[in-house]
Structure prediction request, 459 residues.
Amino acid sequence: MQNGAGSENFLDQKEFFKNNYDYRKSFVETKLTTFTKKKMEKDQDSRKWQPILNQFEIEIIKKNITSKIEFKIASYNLLSPILLNENFYLYENLDQNYLNWKFRRANLLKEIEHINADIYCFQEMDENEYKYFFKRKLSIMGFHSIYKKRSNLKVDGCCIAFRKNIFDLEKKICVDFFMPGIDILNRENVGIILLLKFKPKFSSSLISFQHEPKILCVATTHLLFNPKRGDTKIAQLQLLLANIDRVAYKKSKLMENKLISEYHPVILCGDFNFSNESKIYEFLIKAKLENFKFLNRSNLSGQKTDFKTFLPIGKNVLPKCLGVTDQSQFKYEVDSRNLRLLFDKNNLNRQKMIDISFGSDSISHCFNFKSVYSHFDQTGLPEITTCVNDFKKSVDFIFFHSNDNCEKSNFEESVRESNKLYLLEKYELFNENDGKNLFIPNEIYSSDHFMIAAKFFLT
Prediction:
């Protein structure tokens, strides 16, 4: 769902929908070519897992690491039934049978069960649907779930569910991006951050007692949709990253005369409402965005190109009163770490402290994120994660961080390190050409987004 899109009168839409069923049915049947129908008939089985590591690399891991853990994570924007109704004009040409919430809910649950993940991150999950349906269903499937509703009168929110027999919940933080009186944070979006510890049978029983337990930080969010408010999306992202920083932080150490922060492995996923070609994506992957004050906020997210309107950010993204630095960290957290460094007898160079700044021309963060998806398939065509009318792009992502993510040239040397994430497989996506003949929700896919998923090794 394009969260924040305009709406029309629902009763008028419902009447139009009812009176034009034959027209819509013929429209969809005309659009669905024979090729697409055949493709969709097998799509329940055709979206396969694509290997990332080759067999040689897998054997290296098996040979060198005795305490590896394999797990699967999935992220899915479910398309809130209330948001669908409020923005019905986006779906009025689709088959009514497949828009019915009871049908969609049952179909979504089938998809969730089929992927058989160990961790699920959901967006656009209605609060009542969570309370009276998904929470119970997920519990029956063996999951503990955490839910955060969007603030004010919004009805949907985010959810993370994890297998109770694999993980213990160490810490949770629900992040509300809405802050009254702060214009750049005047939208009701949210995030969830969990620190999960693998149960002893998956970690300490595999290794000697001297080793620390296996910990994983998982976060999900659904950022603002509005294509013209790229500044707000960066502000929301910085606030989320600052909270991930305080949850996933382990320690700081001196390397090559530089202070380096170490973190637990992090997986960040969700509906980000920016494209992989955007400056915001660049900020997340490259960990830095320079001269951001001169960037056009209307084009920052890459959803639409607007050459007519130039609205530079022209100021600090986040006000200093929030205490979030240009490095996307809370100042009080950095002050606390610096104090510990000052009294650390192993820190011989007491002048070395963690640097922070406010109001500079650059923003950054401390993570080395990589994307599970390359955003182009094997033929070079762009992959898509959402399909709403003519808008067919990748806006849903799974990013992962582990300290010193290795390049494959150093693979054999690096696998001996502990607490590293290795991407094993990804769940394939449709490409841009497929999207020309895909109209969702339909009888197979019951959202206007596609589920994304990945398999990891944690060493």
Remarks:
- The CA atoms of residues 256 and 352 lie 12 Å apart.
- Confidence is low (pLDDT under 50) at residues 5-43, 204-210.
